[in-house]
Specification:
Oxalate binds at residues 123, 128, 133. The chain is of the alpha+beta class. It has a domain at 198-234. It has helices spanning 2-21, 201-206, 214-221, 225-234, and strands at 92-97, 111-117, 122-127, 133-139, 141-147, 156-162, 166-169, 175-179, 185-191, 199-200. The strands form two sheets. A five-stranded antiparallel sheet has the order 1-2-9-4-7, with no helix packed on it. It has a five-stranded antiparallel sheet with strand order 6-5-8-3-10. Helix 3 crosses helix 4. The longest helix has 20 residues, at 2-21.
Length: 235
């Protein structure tokens, strides 16, 4: 039976190799990152912008300190105990802790957000193109939900949360939170990217720069063109 064992072992090794080869690339940390073949000023791949210098270079992440020069403070942050200012039209405030203001998060694939909501305050429909999110409610009552893609029927998944409850928003899907109570609400969320990105639905659709042709939006939303133009003025 030795001739049977050899093919099985070979098949196992081949399957492992296939699984390693088929691993996907890491998620991007910018909306796009156009490659530059070389950084010489005379490169045909560099478009000169005199206002910024010969070229701008972005990295998929950030340059790092030498481990020899790091200290515990690089991995410490404070201030999320302070409430945000909810005195605004939305009645909410988002305080973000990410790699831009907490260097210790670099390459760890994590961000943390504190959200404060006044009564009737809302974190409007939005999405994170590079991260899933888990929300933990610490104070108050919150109505939350997300909408699946067209592939799954644009289904709404929504729940009323109380203190101590958790809810997950899958990567890239539009979601929202609304304070349905009569008292302030505090929630904390963790996202699995150091730069999850943010696309607020209303701002994206009606506040793009330059504006989307209102004829397109009128047909898409089944609205009168004048209503669309009025909405665009709001943004």
């Amino acid at each position: 039976m030795k001739w049977i064992k050899f093919p099985l072992i070979t098949l196992a090794i081949f399957s492992l190799a296939i699984s390693l080869v088929s691993a996907y690339d890491p998620s991007p940390l910018q909306d796009f990152c156009v490659a530059i073949n070389n950084l010489k000023d005379d490169s045909k791949d560099i478009i000169e912008d005199k206002s910024k210098g010969p070229f701008d270079v972005y990295t998929n992440g950030k340059f790092c300190k030498s481990p020899k020069s790091t200290n515990p403070n690089d991995f410490f942050s404070s201030g999320l105990n302070s409430p945000g200012d909810t005195n605004n039209p939305l009645g909410s405030s988002v305080t973000t802790l990410n790699v831009d203001n907490f260097g210790g998060l670099n390459t760890l694939g994590l961000s943390l957000v504190r959200i404060d909501y006044a009564p009737n305050g809302v974190n409007p429909p939005h999405s994170h193109p590079r991260a899933s999110e888990i929300l933990a409610l610490t104070v108050g009552t919150l109505y939350v939900g997300f909408v699946s893609s067209a592939q799954d029927g644009n289904r709404l998944y929504a729940k009323v949360l109380n203190a101590g409850d958790l809810f997950v928003f899958p990567i890239g899907l539009v979601h929202f939170e609304f304070n349905i109570g009569k008292t302030p609400v505090v929630a904390f969320t963790v996202l699995n990217s150091q730069n999850p990105g943010l696309a607020t639905t209303a701002n994206t659709v009606f506040g793009s720069n330059p504006p989307i042709n209102p004829d397109i939006l009128a047909k898409a939303f089944k609205l009168d063109k004048k209503i669309v133009e009025n909405l665009q003025k709001q943004f």
